[in-house]
Amino acid sequence: LLNKGKTTLRKVARIEEVNRIIEVLNSIGVKTRWLDGSDLEIVPPPRLRLEDMDIAAAKRTRTVIMFLGPLLHQYDDFKLPFAGGCNLGKRTVEPHLSGLRHFGMNVTAETDYYHANGCQFWRSNDFIDGAWRYGDGKYNYGCGVVAKYYHHPQC
């Protein structure tokens, strides 16, 4: 969801969890198609349409929890259905939520959804062309480990 343009995932398992997340992606405007059996092409729209999300499909998958981080880059405030598939409970999603707090995201578990809001500075100023910018203006083209060590001062 962070990439602009086409992304091709190679050798994706054709399992029910993947089918559900494809349903959710399609419902918010992401175009998907299978290539050569097990490769999956994903093309996000310029702006995701969260208001059109297939809630039933989202509640049947655990993977929807992984949308939280990427959605922070497009939305200041949003709701995401509880991750389903099996009974995850608060404790098993807490590591994800804890990691996202370092990026300025606040997530509250409501009755049947996560309410997320975050710091606009991460979205617009610190993630540029796949690189995280440190406070000194230098860029890290690594995997985002910077979140553990650097919290944006304006959040």
Biggest beta sheet summary: 3 strands, antiparallel
- Identify the strand order in the major beta sheet: 1-3-2
According to DSSP, the number of beta strands is: 9
Low-pLDDT stretches are 120-155
Give the class from helix and strand content and strand pairing. alpha+beta
Topology order in helix (H) and strand (E) letters: EHEEHHEHEEHEEEH
Number of helices: 6
Cα-based radius of gyration, to the nearest Å: 16 Å
- The helix content is 25-40%
C-alpha termini separation: 23 Å
* Arithmetic mean of pLDDT: 75
Shape: globular
Multimeric organization = single chain
Q: Give the amount of beta strand, in percent.
A: 15-25%
Strand and helix layout:
Elements: E1 7-9, H1 16-27, E2 31-35, E3 39-43, H2 55-59, H3 68-72, E4 77-81, H4 89-101, E5 106-109, E6 113-117, H5 120-126, E7 127-128, E8 131-133, E9 139-140, H6 146-149
Antiparallel strand pairs: 1-3, 2-3, 4-6, 5-6, 7-8, 8-9
